[in-house]
Specification:
The protein is built from 7 helices and 4 strands. It has 196 residues and is an alpha+beta fold. The structure holds flavin mononucleotide.
Length: 196
């Protein structure tokens, strides 16, 4: 198996060493080489560093504060504290890449069955891009963290990003300051069923 697949870990502690732009571009190129449903390539990447990153995280902070009083995700309130921890990680990482789905229909209305299929296919395509990105970061000697806690602050972050569509995820990138153990995985026999 590819070492990037077996040895990659989610990194939640970063050194403050800057990451060269060419390396970030290599990660983005790998993301853009991912397969996508009907080759729609439903992604736009906004790379935030320095002052821009601080502004984006201030928007996320506002979202997490608002979420306490007027939750968009009331049934996920127990994960709000973990989202705050994710925000601290994003503050530490030198680079945060926001991944926007420009074709995202949004959360303000229910979807037709066809729209749901379209959304599922686009979400899988974006997932493929993020996976390529995290494996490439590993290959370049960098750590990364795939982040969806941004959903708590979807409106505030989209306001800051000023982009069309929907924020799908973010990825923190930087030089790792930790070497986490592998997190447990299901056993093959618990996840796979062979039918002959
Ligand atoms: C779609 C997705 C969203 C995630 N969101 C977060 C997040 O918001 N915060 C966080 O700390 N980790 C997040 N993670 C990382 C997972 O917790 C991690 O991948 C999992 O625990 C397995 O650990 P490993 O990546 O080290 O193998 C996310 C991972 C995925 C794939």
């Amino acid at each position: 198996m590819l070492p990037a697949i077996t040895d990659r870990r989610s990194i939640r502690k970063y050194r403050d060493t800057p990451v060269k732009r060419q390396m970030v571009e290599e990660i983005l190129r790998a993301g853009m080489l991912a397969p996508s449903s009907k080759n729609r390539q439903p992604w736009r990447f906004i790379v935030a560093e320095g002052r821009a990153k601080a502004q984006s995280l201030a928007a996320m902070e506002r979202g997490l504060e608002r979420e306490k009083k007027q939750p968009l995700l009331p049934q996920s309130a127990q994960h709000l504290e973990a989202a705050r921890h994710t925000l601290r990680i994003m503050e530490q990482a030198p680079v945060v890449i926001f991944v926007v789905n420009p074709l995202g229909i949004g959360m303000n209305r229910s979807l037709t069955v066809e729209e749901r299929v379209y959304e599922l296919c686009n979400a899988q395509s974006i997932g493929a891009a993020l996976e390529n990105m995290s494996l490439t970061a590993f290959d370049l000697g960098l750590g990364s963290l795939w982040i969806c806690d941004t959903y708590f602050a979807q409106e505030e972050l989209m306001g800051w990003l000023g982009a069309e569509g929907e924020l799908a995820a973010a990825m923190a990138v930087g030089y790792a300051a930790e070497s986490p153990q592998a997190r447990p995985r299901k056993k093959l026999e618990d996840a796979v069923e062979w039918r002959i």
